[in-house]
């Protein structure tokens, strides 16, 4: 039983005593309060006991009345039923009413736990779906929603710049694959030092909407260091006639001990400003979707035209 503070409350205890023809026989039901150690004590004066008799006195009982229940009234109450030769105790526990008032709005741990599990599941599902389908969806959105770049006076969608060691990747895989996706492509072999070839590439970049630069250890004379890569990327940034996309065949050696220039820029911070896509295998569909996302919107209605095997001397 859990009443609120201020509630009126009645406890009732009743027993059948019958008729006993003995001069000192009596029937009685009396309420007591029980302490934690089992001791029965008298009730405070503000609590009232009202005795009742029924069936010509054969059934007797007692009401215990709480006019205004208080916190200190919580506890265990015992009705002691006495009749000739018999004494029986019946207990009623009234829980501490303070339970209702210490925290009327308990923290919903269960609901929050369930909500967190649902949110975590949704986030994990979104991450998995984004990794699997995100590049494709973004590429499709770009192709169908972005403005066509046809009236800029340029003849090529893509210029692929590559070193001699990456000829197969450039002309054998990348160029024909992009052509099947309706891109007009051209490719140019870099024969000079890649750290000083921006001037030669610029003349071809003026007629192209995008430049794909293939970076590999062979193209950098096997000097695949943060300092060398930073120098190469900064060098290509001098080409400002079109957007550049870098395809790297190996992960960049980014570490916590990077060298920074006078402006505090490092390879890691530079990478966050440019488009870098790592080449894995030609059958990696997401690689092509990520690459196409950086290229002009696809125009399948135009005739595909390619010009390869050019050289930058």
Automatic annotation (TrEMBL):
Q: Which residues form the Ig-like domain?
A: 1-93
Q: Which residues form the signal peptide?
A: none
- Membrane spanning stretches: 109-129
Q: Which SUPFAM superfamilies match?
A: Immunoglobulin (SSF48726), Toll/Interleukin receptor TIR domain (SSF52200)
Kindly give the InterPro entries that the UniProt entry links to this protein: Ig-like_dom, Ig-like_dom_sf, Ig-like_fold, IL-1_rcpt_fam, Immunoglobulin_dom, TIR_dom, Toll_tir_struct_dom_sf
Spell out the family assignment given in the record's similarity comment: Belongs to the interleukin-1 receptor family.
What name has this protein been given in UniProt? Answer: Ig-like domain-containing protein
**Organism, per UniProt?**
Dendroctonus ponderosae (Mountain pine beetle)
């Amino acid at each position: 039983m859990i009443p609120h503070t201020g509630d009126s409350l009645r406890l009732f205890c009743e027993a059948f005593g019958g008729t006993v023809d003995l001069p000192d026989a009596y029937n009685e039901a009396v309420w007591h309060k029980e302490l934690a150690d089992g001791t029965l004590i008298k009730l405070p004066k503000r609590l009232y006991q009202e005795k009742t008799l029924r069936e010509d006195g054969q059934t007797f009982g007692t009401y215990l009345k709480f006019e205004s229940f208080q916190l200190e009234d919580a506890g265990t109450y015992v009705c002691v039923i006495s009749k000739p030769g018999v004494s029986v105790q019946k207990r009623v526990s009234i829980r501490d009413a303070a339970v209702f008032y210490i925290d009327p709005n308990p923290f919903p741990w269960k609901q929050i736990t369930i909500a967190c599990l649902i949110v975590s599941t949704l986030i994990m599902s979104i991450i998995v779906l984004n990794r699997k389908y995100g590049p494709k969806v973004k590429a499709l959105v770009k192709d169908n929603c972005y403005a066509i770049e046809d009236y800029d006076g340029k003849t090529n969608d893509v210029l692929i710049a590559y070193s001699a060691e990456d000829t197969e990747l450039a002309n054998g895989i990348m160029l024909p694959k992009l052509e099947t996706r309706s891109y007009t492509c051209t490719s140019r072999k870099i024969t000079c030092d890649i750290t000083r070839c921006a001037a030669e590439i610029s003349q071809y970049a003026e007629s192209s909407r995008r430049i794909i630069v293939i970076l590999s250890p062979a193209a950098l004379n096997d000097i695949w260091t943060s300092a060398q890569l930073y120098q190469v990327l900064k060098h290509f940034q001098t080409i400002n006639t079109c957007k550049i996309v870098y395809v790297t065949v190996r992960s960049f050696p980014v570490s916590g001990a990077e060298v920074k220039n006078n402006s505090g820029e490092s390879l890691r911070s530079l990478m966050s400003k440019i488009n870098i896509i790592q080449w894995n295998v030609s059958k990696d569909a997401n690689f092509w979707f990520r690459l196409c996302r950086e290229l002009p919107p696809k125009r399948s209605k135009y005739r595909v035209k390619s010009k390869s095997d050019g050289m930058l001397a």
